[in-house]
Amino acid sequence: MSTTPSGAISGAWERAVDGIRALRRAGVPVQIHTTVNGSDAGEVDRVIAFGKSLGVRDYQFFFLVPTGRGEDLAGIPSEAHEAAIGRILAHAREPGLSVRPTCAPQFVRVAARMGLDPARWGRGCIAGTRYCRITPAGDVTPCPYLPLPVGNIRRESFADIWHGSDILAALRDPDRLGGKCGRCEYRRACGGCRARAYGVGHRRGDACGGPAGDILAEDPCCPYEPGQGEVKHD
């Protein structure tokens, strides 16, 4: 794990680490967020070891959804994606340590296969079900990586958008999922990544590929074929 990442502002790393130390001295919990990409997926163990040395017990590992400033970055091929999820979840066995793969909802299936209880994390993809994004212009989208406005809080109330959007209603109904996500025995617990299904990865040349434009399509980054005999968890 490099302490001088390319393109970083001089001294930013040191100030961030000093900030973590100061917060921990004051008894304030800290959560570390990091992005897992093809070149650094093997550094999961080192990130957690470094965080633990600072007293951090909570980690979220984000799997790249190529959009925004990361639109030209290649994602992880599906097999490597799966392996990285397993590597992260191996740390979930440590008492008092919280880890979550984010933007990789199939982790609930991998967790069940590893003998972990997926219920401790809740649903895999929570876009439009437990959270959403509101842009500075007031547009509401199901998640930050899904550029599909479902309403605008400058023109209507958030409650009306949250409870009345047809798109959000579709995201909350796992029986409306298409492709192998729709056939999958994990569809209620996982849901597949809706941003990738919408085609962000396909349009940007993501290694996972996939059809563009369908918010309910199958997740192109999941290698699992429904009915392979893994433990069911709804």
List descriptors.
three-stranded parallel beta sheet, 234 residues, globular, three-stranded antiparallel beta sheet, 9 helices
Secondary structure elements and their pairing?
Elements: H1 12-25, E1 31-36, H2 44-53, E2 58-63, H3 78-89, E3 98-102, H4 107-113, E4 133-134, E5 139-141, E6 151-152, H5 158-164, H6 166-171, H7 179-183, H8 194-197, H9 200-203
Parallel strand pairs: 1-2, 2-3
Antiparallel strand pairs: 4-5, 5-6
Task: Tell me the overall shape.
Answer: globular
Spans of at least 5 consecutive residues with low confidence: none
Order of helices and strands: HEHEHEHEEEHHHHH
If helices are DSSP runs of H or I spanning 4 or more residues, what is the number of helices?
Answer: 9
Backbone structural class = alpha/beta
Strand content: 5-15%
Helix content: 25-40%
User: Termini separation (Å)?
Assistant: 37 Å
Radius of gyration: 18 Å
Mean pLDDT: 86
Oligomer class: single chain
Q: How would a crystallographer describe the biggest sheet? A: 3 strands, parallel
Number of strands: 6
User: What strand order characterises the main sheet?
Assistant: 1-2-3
Quick structural overview:
This protein is α/β, with parallel strands linked by helices and 234 residues long. It has helices at residues 12-25, 44-53, 78-89, 107-113, 158-164, 166-171, 179-183, 194-197, 200-203, and strands spanning 31-36, 58-63, 98-102, 133-134, 139-141, 151-152. Strands 1-2-3 form a three-stranded parallel sheet, with helices on one face. Strands 4-5-6 form a three-stranded antiparallel sheet, with no helix packed on it.
